[in-house]
Amino acid sequence: MPHVLGRLACAAGELGVRGAAAAAAACSAGNELAMARILPGIFKHNRCRNGVYPQSDVRRYPVPDESVFWSQTYSDYQPPVHESPILHGKPWADLSADDPAFKPKWNELDGKVNRVSFIGGKYEIRDDCPVNPFGRTGIRGRGILGRWGPNHAADPVVTRWKRDESGEMILHPDSGKRILQMCAIERQDCGEWAIPGGMVDPGEKVSATLRREFLEETMDNDAGDEAGAVEQFFAEGTEIYKGYVDDPRNTDCAWMETVAVNFHDESGAVVGRFPLHAGDDAAKVRWMDVGEEVKLYASHSNIVKRVVDMLEAHW
Q1: 127: pLDDT strictly greater than 80
Q2: Cα–Cα distance between 23 and 34 in angstroms, integer?
Q3: How many other C-beta atoms are found inside a 10 Å radius of the C-beta of residue 105?
Q4: What is the number of H-type helices and E-type strands within the chain?
Q5: Core-most of 66, 110, 257, 309, by most CB within 10 Å?
Q6: Alpha-carbon radius of gyration of the chain
Q7: How would residue 5 be classed by pLDDT, with cut points 50, 70 and 90?
């Protein structure tokens, strides 16, 4: 591990992101594409820079705005290496990069593990390690992420309209628009409110992950008499985002990506019957009014904003 990641650090100052010029050209072609995707070489992650790495006392090496991208010279860049002990021996985690038994197939389906990025295009491999296509994070290794390179998640954004006791939709007094509510969980690891999502298991379809994670996080895996209604509700949804997540767990060598799908109950008659109670990694679960003032975990606010725009709700 040390010598592999050490070589990676030596090359970091000169590393350029392939496709940055193409990404810039795509962005200049129209704002619509820029809104649809977060692009390497343009978007600067923020939540995975500076400060202390989650669930540790390891402080990230400072990365100023002008030194985020690998194409920008940062000759003094010497980030620490961190791999959480919780990864050791776990079936959901890769082996150490220096383990001779670890022979991954980068940028392709590696057995049941999907190492293809949701971002589009191939990520770089330098000195046998994947390189975060969005730039420096101030830390090397995997941190608490199980996979080298992309770690895939799925986020079900379950929404309904806020209604009064008579069942009428409530309009916001300032915007005059309908108020959207989302099913949110309070994460046990950091106490922040979030979309009730989770990791895609090896060989699992994203559609199955979306349903499974919602059941685990908001119903403690027990839908009771509403099991059939839950199954039907999650049969159809609208994909609103697929790509990189500005997640505090990201490192130079491992990062989060997600597929976010909106499941909207226009009448509120279906989700209102769901027996919500926190389970798995959630401390609490509740219906939350969506608005600009709401602060959510990682990039979840940006994801929810896309749903708001799509449904023309108050923000």
Answers
A1: yes
A2: 9
A3: 11
A4: 6, 13
A5: 257
A6: 20
A7: very low
Average pLDDT over residues 179-192: 91
* 161-189: b (≥16 Cβ within 10 Å) or e: bbbeeeeeeeebeeeeebbbbbbbbbbee
Please return the burial class of 158, using the count of CB atoms within 10 Å of its CB with bins 0-12, 13-18 and 19+.
Answer: buried
Tokens encoding 134: 């969005």
Other CB atoms closer than 10 Å to residue 130's CB: what's the count?
25
- Please state whether 105 falls in left (phi above 0), alpha (psi between -120 and 50) or beta: beta
Q: How many CB atoms lie within 10 A of CB 46?
A: 13
Q: What is the mean pLDDT of residues 210-221?
A: 85
Mean pLDDT computed over 61-77? 97
- Kindly state the average pLDDT of the residues 118-125: 95
Between CA 60 and CA 131 the distance in angstroms is: 17
Neighbours of 229 (CB within 10 A): 15
Task: Give, in order, the Cα–Cα distances in Å from 268 to each of 133, 185, 233, 240.
Answer: 40, 19, 12, 20
In this prediction, residue 216 carries a pLDDT of 86
Q: CA–CA separation, 65 vs 45, rounded Å?
A: 9
Q: What is the CATH number of domain 152-311?
A: 3.90.79.10
pTM confidence score:
0.83
Show Cβ contacts of residue 66 under 8 Å, excluding neighbours closer than 6 positions: 72
Please name every residue paired with 181 in a beta bridge, in sequence order, or none if there are none. Answer: 160, 289
Distance (Å, rounded) from C-alpha 263 to C-alpha 245?
Answer: 20
Amino acid at 197: G
pLDDT bin (cut points 50, 70, 90) of residue 278 is confident
Amino acid at site 177: K
Angle at the Cα of 107 from the Cα atoms of 105 and 113, rounded to 5 degrees: 60
DSSP structural state of residue 165 = T
